[in-house]
Amino acid sequence: xxxxxxxxxxxxxxxxxxxxxxxxxxxxxxxIEILKKMxxxxxxxxxxxxxxxxxxxxxTCHLYIGEExxxxxxxxxxxxxxxxxxxxxxxxHCIAKDSDLNFMMSELIGKGNGYCKGKGGSMHxxxxxxxxxxxxxxxxxxxxxxVGAALTNKLKKNxxxxxxxxxxxxxxxxxxxxSVNIASIWNLPLIYFCENNQYGMSTPIISSTNxxxxxxxxxxxxxxxxxxxxxxxxxxxxVVSHFAELCRKGKGPILIESLTYRWKGHSxxxxxxxxxxxxxxxxxxxxxxxxxxxxxxxxxxxTAGEVLEIEKKVIEEIKNAADFxxxxxxxxxxxxxxxxxxx
Amino acid sequence: MSNLTYLEAIREAxxxxxxxxxxxxxxxxxxxxxxxxxxxxxGLFAEFGAERVRDTPISESVIIGTAVGSAIxxxxxxxxxxxxxxxxxxxxxxxNQAAKIRYMFxxxxxxxxxxxxxxxxxxxxxxxxxxxxxxxFAHIPGLKVVMPSCPYDAKGLFISAVYDNNPVIFLEHKVxxxxxxxxxEVPKGIYTIPLGKGEIKRxxxxxxxxxxxxxxxxxxxxxxxxxxxxxIDCEIIDLRTIKPLDIDIVLESVKKTGxxxxxxxxxxxxxxxxxxxxxxxxxxxxxxxxxxxxxxxxNNPVPYSHxxxxxxIPSVDKIKDRILSVLSKN
Lengths: 343, 330
Fold this sequence. Notes:
The structure holds two protein chains of two kinds.
Chain A: H1 28-53, H2 68-76, E1 84-85, H3 91-96, H4 101-108, H5 142-155, E2 162-167, H6 174-185, E3 190-196, E4 199-200, E5 203-204, H7 205-208, E6 224-229, H8 233-248, E7 254-259, H9 277-284, H10 288-298, H11 304-327
Chain B: E1 2-4, H1 6-20, E2 24-28, H2 44-52, E3 53-55, H3 60-72, E4 76-83, H4 91-98, H5 101-104, E5 114-119, H6 134-139, E6 144-146, H7 151-163, E7 168-173, E8 184-186, E9 199-202, E10 207-211, H8 213-230, E11 234-238, E12 241-243, H9 247-257, E13 260-267, H10 272-284, E14 293-297, H11 306-312, H12 316-329
Parallel strand pairs in B: 2-3, 2-4, 4-5, 5-7, 6-7, 10-11, 10-13, 13-14
Antiparallel strand pairs in B: 1-8, 6-12, 9-11
Helix pairs in contact in B: 1-7, 3-4, 8-12, 9-10
């Protein structure tokens, strides 16, 4: 895989952790599934951007383009019945966790058959059946929920692990400290997967944080923490597989800082005056999908032709999801006051 | 059946539900070996152990968040926030997570958790340990809010709250906790009092007094004095749960008496009883022979000095005098 010069020198030397290359032994179908999921996220988000341009996204939403390796690498490394908690930029995690693309797209344009019946929107897509506890409109808001899910695993004595996806900026929110601290004293099976995409909205993480690496915060909690290349899906997969297993053995929590970059603006409305086009272009050279595709071709898992076929199928799938959403009905007005309370 | 204080009745409720259901656990600050700031959870750590009676760091956000996360994944957490004032530190987890998850997820999740907390003044704890915040909680869709006034109700309402599939804010009055004066015969074993049903604590024909929590007890005392001294027959309605609100019990009473006084310990401005009065205006204006009146605390933080604190919070005398003034004008 091409080396990411923007990341090089900032990542942890993984040798000391004796992380096995489990990716190497994955079945071909699983390796292809990983590629397919990354494409699904990329094209799904492109389609969402089209909806934004057409004015069909009513409120706002946050696109995941450029960060695909994080969600897909991490979620591919856990079991289907391991819980995840997503963050503010959640579409990618839903797709990686096998959410239905049609119902996701419906939710984004406010249709009644969307994941949340049109009551949540971009920032709240959750799928309890797929063990996805949802994105969150409050930066850092999911970090308590993740502790709760991990505690459920512990109290029910199952071997489940929870991945709590967070962004770099949320680590300056008070609940980050409360959450990681309590998880550390209880040894919870919890992976804090911090996607450091370099900006909290417009604020560069380097100007909001006085340490070089977010993973250095591990010292406050006496836990393992490391910084990895988040645009390398193989590395993400191997690291999360390794630490998920340790978590299942009672050696959690873990803090993983995954270096990555969002190609698009923070949200629907973002003039991006806080960064240069050159910076964006430099990061695009380390396109996680391109890197992974080349890796698979180089190791003879797939041919370039097969990749094109996969890509074409995904494009078709996303087009269908967009059609499905557009043709779906808006929620019935009688739904307004339902689902506030459970029976 | 045994004679229990309010605190003992809640403790017995917790103990009995925990004996029955493995999915119920406690979480909070100093609730384990120490037994909680007021001693309410005393003995539970010895009986159920550290896994199910979980002491935490001073981290209100994550205590509440942990309850939310464990509730949506299959547990029934009971969490203690030592004083209701401290909920401010974890308010995001209450108002944005616990309360909204079910709605935001299109009805696909439920959040069966109870947030217990000590409310109210009258104990000299000062501005950060004495507020009455029920109006804030009741205002947030998705929460239920319970305010028991006596040991029997506290136990039955608590058990209902535990088995409710929604986040319930259970406001326990700190003056009532250990008061022998308000101790009551409380049955052993599980019994429930439905959330959203008020109760007439004292039937009467002359005036309807609606109250919550400790104010029910004060209103009952005022009513006895008025009966004895002035032959005034007050009807005292205990809302027990303010959300859902049993407005029907209030309307039925006002239909009979034609007069309404609402008593609450919170500051009057934006207080919950404003909602009760508004609903009576909307649904029962014709029943009223006099303007509905609120008796509430003055609009300032709860002061420390007992002289000032007593001046702020409605007393038996103040309640009695307002009732007399309403009746004398009509």
